[in-house]
Amino acid sequence: MTDAATMLDIAVDEARQGLAEGGIPIGAALFGPDGTVLGRGHNRRVQDDDPSTHAETAAFRNAGRRRHYRDTTMVTTLSPCWYCSGLVRQFAIGHVIIGESTTFHGGHDWLTAHGVQITILDDQRCIALMRDFIATRPDLWFEDIGE
Amino acid sequence: MTDAATMLDIAVDEARQGLAEGGIPIGAALFGPDGTVLGRGHNRRVQDDDPSTHAETAAFRNAGRRRHYRDTTMVTTLSPCWYCSGLVRQFAIGHVIIGESTTFHGGHDWLTAHGVQITILDDQRCIALMRDFIATRPDLWFEDIGE
Questions:
Q1: ipTM score here?
Q2: Of the candidates B137, B40, B113, which has an alpha carbon nearest to the alpha carbon of residue B145?
Q3: Quick check: B52 contacting A, CB < 8 Å?
């Protein structure tokens, strides 16, 4: 069993890697029931000119094909947007660990209502990453959430 | 202005191309306000070993980065699952044209409740494509919707 803070560290590493590449600093990882990393990734809008690769989608894609997800945990640095919340609901990912929901409040309440376990960590590294990024590149951030 | 049936033909072409490649026969296209195809694509789970590329995500990705989507129309051969419905809601795509919702009923009622215009065509080609596919490859179909 891996604790939530240790799992979040991997998502934070991904977010920082994305920032270092000139991208949007949001990272995620999908874990199996034994704490194994199945897939990890970060937002790739800027890097690949790809609006569809949010961090959660990147981690989900990199985990490859699976028969089911109910015993998996998605860890993400930021509250998942509707697109990523829809991913969690459709594939019945059992648990979502969220670094912070202060700078953006996505669909995690909806996920709770549909039986997904939600853990919010209020992590100061995650808040600082997004706060600084939104202040520096509001254009990229609002493009990424379609606002 | 392009009519809904003509727009759906492009999504059906994509679905048939996916089937010919050995994949899941669901296709989609994103159109601009003048009827221009911005992006088109089909489900690529089998072809790319990629669980994240549903048809709507493929069309959205292939359209590239845009500042907003409110005047765009997503055409898809099948009612969008929660993942693809979340995509439509997050990026505020204004209109979704759906080939059929008989073989699968996804999140389109939720989209209607959130102000998205929904048009369902009850297209017999789309129904036949999915009915035959589900009968032939139920394993792939249930994997694709996480059931």
A1: 0.96
A2: B137
A3: yes
Measure CB to CB from residue B45 to each of A51, A65, A89 and give the nearest one.
Answer: A65
Comparing C-alpha atoms, which of A48, A51, A53 is closest to residue B68?
A: A51
Contacts of A83 in chain B (CB under 8 A): 83, 86-87, 89-91
A35-79 pLDDT, tens per residue?
Answer: 999 999 999 999 999 999 999 999 999 999 999 999 999 999 999
Domains recognised in chain B with CATH numbers? 4-141 (3.40.140.10)
Q: Are B74 and B97 in contact (CB under 8 A)?
A: yes
Average pLDDT score, chain B: 97
Strands laid side by side in the A37-42 sheet:
A37-42, A27-31, A73-78, A95-100, A117-120
CB-CB under 8 Å, A81 with B90:
yes
Check if B117 contacts A (Cβ < 8 Å): no
